[in-house]
């Protein structure tokens, strides 16, 4: 499983809040808000239009448009240079890997993506003292910066015709048929 976190920057204080978690596993993507979203809400954060419910897990067979729109399309002539600049091999096609390197920044919003911190050996540290790779530039505060996923009360599955919610307690497998028609026609 590959995991990225979505951070929101308060435009007034310029403080970053980790508000969501994107996970990729077995050709499925899931997104859910973290406890950091509650902390950010006190500073003015509003749930994103694509993910309107804070206590919901969103599942899709396709990367959600919020994240897809943060990656340079393969069809662009400068795509090879983009991968080289990110130090990503030209054969890499996993959008989660690309987002983890690029940060997915856009001038038009206050969101950014960062990889899940990973344990690693620190140069010069004793063998029994692993370190953490810090997520780019974020100073995480409080309960590990709100990185713990929120307890979900439902799972939302999007298919071509409609969106439907499944109670998480039922434990049903969730799959998506494809992006909604409006998203496919962009």
Task: Give a short overview.
The protein is an alpha+beta fold. Helix content is 16%, strand content 26%. It has 5 helices and 9 strands, in the order βββαβαααβββββα.
Task: Write structural notes for this entry.
It is a single chain. With 186 residues, the protein is an alpha+beta fold. It has one domain (2-184). The protein is 16% helix and 26% strand. The protein is built from five helices and nine strands, in the order E-E-E-H-E-H-H-H-E-E-E-E-E-H. The chain has helices at 35-41, 65-68, 79-85, 95-102, 181-184; strands at 2-9, 16-25, 28-33, 56-60, 111-115, 119-120, 131-132, 154-158, 163-167. A seven-stranded mixed beta sheet has the order 5-1-2-3-4-8-9. A two-stranded antiparallel ribbon has the order 6-7. The longest helix is centred in the middle third of the chain and has 8 residues, at 95-102. The radius of gyration is 17 Å and the shape is globular. Mean pLDDT is 74; it is low at 128-186.
